[in-house]
Amino acid sequence: MTTTALPISAHPAVEGGLQLEVTSVSVQTESIVSIILANPSGGTLPSYVPGSHLVVQYGDGVNAYSLTGSGNAPSEYAISVLRVEDGAGGSMAMHQLAVGDRVYVSRPRSAFAPVSTATHHLLVAAGIGITPVLSHARAAADRGTTSSLIYVYRPGAGAHVDEARELLGPALTECSNRTGFQEVLTEQLASQNLGTHLYVCGPGAFMDGVLGQARELGWPEARLHSEAFGAAELDEGEPFSVNLVRSGIKLEVPAGVSLLETLENAGKTIPNMCRKGICGECSLSVLRGAPQHRDLYLTDEEKAENTTMMCCVSRSEDPELELDL
Amino acid sequence: MSINIDKNPESDVLPERIRRFPFPFTAEQYRYSANVEPAHKTVETEAGAWGAGLIDIDEFYLQELADRDQILTRDPSRMQVLPHMRPAVWDALTAVLSSMAEDYPDTMSFHREGNTCRWQNTLQNLNIEFTAGDDDSLPGGPMRFLGSQIQDDIVLLDIREDTMWLDAGLVSFAADWSFSFDVGMNFLEIHGPVPRVKEENIVRRAEQFLMRLQPGEQFRRTNWTMTIGQRLDTSTETYPEWGPDRGTIATDPDLPDKLHLRVEVQHLIRLPHTGVVMFLIRSYLLSLTDIAKVPVWREKLGHVLAELPEDMAEYKGIIRYRKAASDWLLAS
Amino acid sequence: MRSVSMPSAAGSGLEPGFRGVICASFGVTGDTAGHDTGDRPRHDLRFVSANPEALADLRSVLGCSHVGVRLVLAGPPADIRAAAAAAAECGLLEEEMTLLCDEAGPRVVYCPHCRARTTVGAAGTEAECSGCATTLFIADHFSRRMGAYLGYSAHVEEAS
Questions:
Q1: Which of C62, C81, C101 is the last residue of a domain?
Q2: What residues make up the domain containing C29?
């Protein structure tokens, strides 16, 4: 049954992305399904960096899910989704997807990349945190680098266990209780050759524990890599309004739309170049209110003065900003 | 194209090298800035236009590739790939070839099934099959092969330890730097010798920008200097060959023909599978004689050269002759 | 805990899986003795210079160490920079190395014209290349991979 029609318009977070078709839905565990997405017209999809996530639109909302493949010239994208009963609804909507449904997705985004110089990848995952590290393990195998995985899951509730076993063989350690995990972790953290990097994904407290223990054993920050699943920053910001004092008009800047775009939509011509907060072209004078500075152009001192802002990326800390426009 | 034939009867006969030249100055003075903008955007100039595509192929294609081949045979150190960069080179090759096939459908095509790739380039009568990831499947390996298909120099920057590392590339046409010496340096170290940029925090800002690019995103910027003679290889390696010209050009009666504005169009691309940042550096030379055929260019370049602060002129290696050049441009 | 091994026997005095601090001194001026490693286990190495045998010893010590190890290098730039480059090739990160540099000691200049390396004194802005006899201007441009400063032919533009 196809209940999820393609939404009429793409959410800003998936703009410039892809429209894909669900080609397979399979049950991993009681609460986790794997969804395969492919190009409706066939052909390969953009390659992605191992550990990347995909932003998927459901209704008016978006959620981020880790891709589980190696990312090398893929013909399909695979994600696994844990049903969260009291979440914002994204995971429930994803669980209702059926073969043939179409969804808007972003291009894959990388925020948990493997280190190219690593000679060994030590992967640590808990629960649904298996998804990005499975991608890492596959890519390492592709590139001829070794990896090992410590995977913690509740008995009967582990996703991708068979794939992990096949991929890693004896380099996989499965743990179902805290004490056993602690022993394995300590032993492995203390016995890694110099080229090893650590990657951890799971609930926040779990990751904090693993990273804390690594630091205690002398691991420097540059060897530690982590991703909080489901928390990939979408960065669309809060809505706010701007009062253009010289023009005598007031505009609303919605979440997910930049101030620059809002001004352009209102017919204002603002000089701009990079639209990424680095070139400094779209600078505006602020008369009142505190901008939320998200650019790379202004110095910390200039930002603190709150008299200038880069309208392509920066937003507002206050509900309203007054601009010299 | 915005050539106004009525007002300027000369411009309808302007040769292609002038019409396609990426004249970089928008004002009568120049300072360093993080002048990046999205790629694939046509820029109209007073003489023509540039910048529509990623890889620009022009009338000098085969000549420049032959020059590069000779340079690499003479000095193999112009190409280097640190071992951990092998996947990134394949990522770069497949990304560039598929982009060329899109931009030049009449002369080029690229097909990939899994790791099996087929590349056709009729400009070189080339039809070749290779296996992505297998270095032996292409003559000279993937980096050398990429360098035989595009006029751009190639630099690959790996991202680690919250910085970028120049860990691979093929640079035959360096403008006064040594690629082989810089291999293995981080972004800040590479730019150590550039005046002003450290104080102005430009390097760190540019680095943050590049590291935040998402895979697949493509930006570009321009940079410029001057070169004496129609020569693209002004590397530190060959400095004893071309350096002496800097001392004699100011009084050379042939200065307008010998002295060239050199513009680099640099594309900045985050590669899709490795996340490595690829710099493609495409160099263009245009003599002052040619520049002067476009009155606005003649005047702008004349003022930029006259006004440029001493430290920047020194770093660009133009301090001994920039006055002679601007005098000629502004007098004609 | 303190263990000392002679250069020729380096590695043999180190228990496999070492995760303490390796302190390597080079030449007569290099001295890590004063470097406080706190209560972490420490392994001292002393070398005359960063010659190929010394670097091989250092590599073998790092090769049997585990993540958590730290390296302290003391001596003239020419030696500790070469050692740091070797350590980086073994997988050691910048964060894991401390360089105690004797700035008055010799340094290395790379000639891009003939690719030779020349060891020169700390003072002066020019040196003669040991490979092609070119007088090199020594630029303030340093490569950690080569452990050397960039030189280039001096006075080229004045020759007219």
A1: C101
A2: 2-101
Considering the domain boundaries, does residue A66 fall inside one? yes
Cα–Cα distance for residue pair B273/A46, rounded to 1 Å: 9
ipTM of the complex: 0.90
What phi and psi values does residue B63 have, to the nearest 5 degrees? Answer: -60, -45
Pairwise CA distance, residues B80 & B76, whole Å: 8
Of A107, A113, A274, the CB nearest to B37: A274
C65 secondary structure, DSSP code:
B
Q: B-chain residues within 8 Å CB-CB of A116?
A: 84-85, 87-88, 158, 160, 167, 274, 276
Question: Closest to C66 (Cβ–Cβ): which among A117, A190, A222?
Answer: A190
Is A77 an interface residue toward B (CB < 8 Å)? no
Q: How many domains does chain A have?
A: 3
Q: Which of B84, B236, B249, B318 to mutate to test the interface with C (most CBs of C within 10 A)?
A: B236
CATH number at residue A283: 3.10.20.30
Kindly state whether residues C35 and C97 are assigned to the same domain: yes
Amino acid C159: pLDDT: 54
Residue found under tokens 């980096």? B143
For residue A179, the enclosing domain spans: 120-227
Q: Does any domain span residue A129?
A: yes
Does residue C91 sit in the same domain as residue C112? Answer: no
Q: How far apart are CA C6 and CA C12, in angstroms?
A: 9
Nearest Cα of chain C lies from the Cα of A144 at a distance, in angstroms, of 17
A168 inside domain = yes
Last residue of a domain, one of A189, A205, A227: A227
Q: Which two tokens stand for residue A142?
A: 């592709």
Place of tokens 């589980």: A68
Residue C60 C-alpha, separation from nearest chain A C-alpha, in angstroms: 12
A152 forms beta bridges with A126, A175
Residues A190 and A259 in one domain: no
Tell whether B120 is covered by a domain.
Answer: no
pLDDT in tens, B245-302: 999 999 999 999 999 999 999 999 999 999 999 999 999 999 999 999 999 999 999 9
- Cβ distance A190 to C17 less than 8 Å, yes or no, reads yes
As for how many domains chain C has, the answer is: 2
H helix and E strand count, chain B: 14, 12
Q: How far apart are CA A13 and CA A7, in angstroms?
A: 14
Residues A35 and A131 reside in one and the same domain:
no
Catalytic choice (B20, B78, B220, B221): B221
Residues (pLDDT < 70) of chain A are: 1-8, 86-88, 228-235
Q: Decide if B298 is catalytic.
A: no
Residue range of the domain that includes B172: 9-54+151-331
What CATH number is attached to the domain comprising A38?
2.40.30.10
Instruction: Measure the CA angle with vertex C73, ends B81 and C118; round to 5°.
Output: 60
- pLDDT for res A141: 95
Cβ of A2 under 8 Å from any chain B Cβ?
A: no
Reply yes or no on whether the pLDDT at C11 is more than 50: no
Does residue C7 register a pLDDT over 50? Answer: no
Q: Single out the residue in A47, A77, A105 at which a domain terminates.
A: A105
| Three-state SS letters, C99-147 | EEECCCCCEEEECCCCCCEEEECCCCCEEECCCCCCEEEEEEEEECCCC
A254 and A296 share a domain?
yes
Partners of B216 on chain A (C-beta within 8 Å) are 46, 107
Q: Would A178 be classed as within a structural domain?
A: yes
Q: How many residues does chain A have?
A: 325
For residue C31, pLDDT beyond 90: no
Q: C-alpha A163: how far from its chain's center?
A: 23
Cα→Cα distances A15→A11, A12, A65, C133, Å: 6, 5, 17, 61
Mutate to test the interface with B, among A116, A197, A302 (most CBs of B within 10 A): A116
> How far is the C-alpha of B58 from the C-alpha of B66, rounded, in Å?
14
- Indicate the residue among C59, C78, C101 that finishes a domain: C101
